[in-house]
Amino acid sequence: MSLTTCQQSAFDFIASMKSGETVFLTGQAGTGKSYLMEHLQIQLENCLTVASTGMAAAQIGGATCHSTFGLEIGIYEPFNKPFRVTKENKEAIEAADYLLIDEVSMVRADTLDSISDCCKWVREDKRRFGGLKVIMVGDILQLPPIVSRDEAEEFAQLYRSPWFFDAMCLTADLQVSELKTVMRQKELTFLEALNAAREGRADGVDLLNTRVAPKPAGAIELVTRNAKAESRNMQELQKLDGKTFWFYGELVGKFKESECPVPMTLTLKKGARVVLMKNSREYRNGQMGTVMGCEEEIVSVLLDDGETVAVGPATWEKSTYSRGEDGKLAREIVGTYRQVPLRLGYAVSVHKSQGQTYEQVHLNIAGQCFQPGMAYVAISRCKALGGITLEKPLRPSDIFADQTVGQFYRNANWVGGDR
What we know:
By secondary structure, the protein is α/β, with parallel strands linked by helices. The chain contains 13 helices and 21 strands. The relative contact order is 0.17.
């Protein structure tokens, strides 16, 4: 795997970390965080990899924070209850040298404290995270972690904000490495508008609003609610004539239905628009196309670039870690999900679009953005301004960022990467 100059700088810093050090690897959409993380997983020995959600864990072949560290639902109260960590996970935590946390922007401050306390308890080491070298990956100028209404008052008494960087275990010495070279988009004016949106500034609204137009044929519509996306997909599917085909996913072991990156029951017709949800030699995650035919477990898809591919079932793995016979960290597959890696491609929610890149997007988000970073996530899904259309003009109030994040960046200890 070849790295860009900034990715190599970040990797070199991480590879030289000392026991007990923590680093936050960040960068806007399209800067190659996922690619660098894959490189880290390959190159770093005894690296325990976890993610904030089941779907994120499935994409990286890791496990969730909650399953690995025996965490409970609700606000964490330090050492109020013993950690329910399995024997295998205890051995994995003991054997690890590195802890890699993906999508850390969705990890709450109390969750990070509980992970640190669990590591201290298991490793019998009073340093934060039990002395592990910790790499946290994500973009905190995208969508924030969730605190329910029932938890909000109590949480505010314990923490300055829900963000991971306000965890008690990170009161000092958190190092930040930022990737700034954007590989997804190349147009300077579009990049400037994107960066403004990322920082919560509406400087690029006028440029984006030049793209107000009817939804083009083949574009995927981005909306703010999952229910709206699902409804739109089924409405469009029902408009198609012809036979309906159903493909049923297969869960094995500890893989949960809520963690599945594609539906357990996939409903398709000839002519349906679809999104590819996994990489292979013939296609890539995020590519779009049209169903040309279905036979048993195979779907023939005409990609928008003109190539026809046969899409068969793919397998996602859920892993845990344990200490191998040689004393080193060993990865064990504890669950799998097998399904044709497709989703209907008429609409998707902004939340579920995170991590995807589309050639054409139709943004139906004006006046509906209810979270910091939502507009930025939607806009940054596309490679070029010419691939974006808007249902209605964006308002300056649609584009906003969390001020707590801005303060964190201003006071950050920058290392490696492009800084």
